[in-house]
Design goal:
Layout (H helix, E strand, L loop, with lengths): L1 E6 L2 E7 L8 E6 L3 E5 L5 H13 L3 E6 L5 H4 L2 H7 L4 E4 L1 H7 L2 H12 L11 E2 L4 E4 L2 E7 L9 E5 L4 E9 L12 H12 L6 E6 L6 H16 L6 H11 L17 H4 L14
Parallel strand pairs: 4-5, 5-6, 6-7, 11-12
Antiparallel strand pairs: 1-2, 2-3, 3-4, 8-9, 9-10, 10-11
Helix pairs in contact: 6-7
Length: 280
């Protein structure tokens, strides 16, 4: 699915992957001739669609920026490096360091996604400085406090009053807490980002594009999570309670994913992950 908006001489096209592949968003920001891509998809079938869309746009892809080191946002790096060799692949050094975990991430996801996943990665160059430019349009780099990951970058386009948030913001999807479990810092990161300047458009990492109000909705979810996830509460109880509080939110599977024992050791069904989240 692609959602598009034009404002003040810039075009934003947000590509969303399939729900069964975690529905990650990627954003193509373009002028008449040139474009930046923020994140580049996950599984091969989605990446192929995104490649086709970017190629058919007729824009010169100048750079690809990676927001954070989760594979649903960087899984297309190899395909894009091959298809657009003139485009520079960029990420902050902390994000690159996180991407070095890909062999373990692949092991984590291969039972679900199999040969849809890349085997090896082309790694980005370090993203330096404070901003990049499309023609005369500035795009600022926002280095975030700990949120979904320890290191993450959002992007702000002042002339369009647009925040490309990556996984800083989810719109009507459950958040993934398994890496940092730090809702307080995540709330601070959102407050910092929405305070960078006027914001009319927010492109979330998951969910539909919206206005600045979806920042408040993400904060509300995080405050509820903080209330539920007290020290000593088992993560299965946390998952069930957050599903009860937000029954219409997508990606509930994310609530059941941990980096420690449990999901990987006992198996998803054994710890009580609802069957409908596992495809029946």
């Amino acid at each position: 699915m692609i959602a598009s908006v034009e404002t003040n001489g810039l075009r934003f096209d947000m590509f969303t992957g399939e729900e069964r592949f975690l529905a990650p968003n990627c954003v193509l920001v373009s002028t008449r001739q040139d474009a930046f891509l923020i994140d580049c998809g996950f599984v091969k079938s989605d990446v192929e669609k995104l490649l086709k869309f970017v190629g058919q746009s007729g824009k010169r892809l100048r750079a690809i920026f990676i927001t954070h080191a989760h594979p649903d946002h960087y899984g297309g790096v190899n395909a894009f490096a091959e298809a657009f060799p003139e485009a520079t692949l960029l990420a902050r050094q902390g994000v690159i360091d996180g991407m070095l975990e890909w062999p373990a991430k692949r092991l984590h996801w291969q039972d679900m996604f199999g040969d849809q996943l890349p085997v090896d990665l082309v790694y980005p160059r370090p993203l330096l400085g404070k901003a990049a430019y499309l023609a005369d349009r500035e795009m600022l780099f926002l280095d975030l406090p700990i949120c979904e990951t320890v290191h993450a970058t959002a992007f702000y386009v002042p002339s369009a009053r647009a925040l490309i948030a990556g996984d800083l913001i989810f719109n009507r999807y459950h958040l993934y807490m398994g890496d940092t479990n730090n809702p307080t810092s995540w709330i601070s990161a959102i407050e910092q980002a929405r305070g960078i300047g006027p914001v009319d458009l927010v492109f979330p990492g998951h969910g539909k594009l919206g206005g600045v109000d979806i920042c408040a909705e993400t904060i509300r979810w995080l405050k509820d999570y903080r209330d539920v996830a007290k020290p000593g509460v088992h993560f299965t109880a946390i998952a069930r309670e957050m599903m009860r509080r937000y029954p219409d939110y997508g990606l509930a599977l994310l609530l059941w994913l941990t980096r420690g024992p449990g999901f990987g050791t006992a198996g998803a069904r054994e710890i009580g992950v609802p069957a409908e989240l596992l495809g029946g």
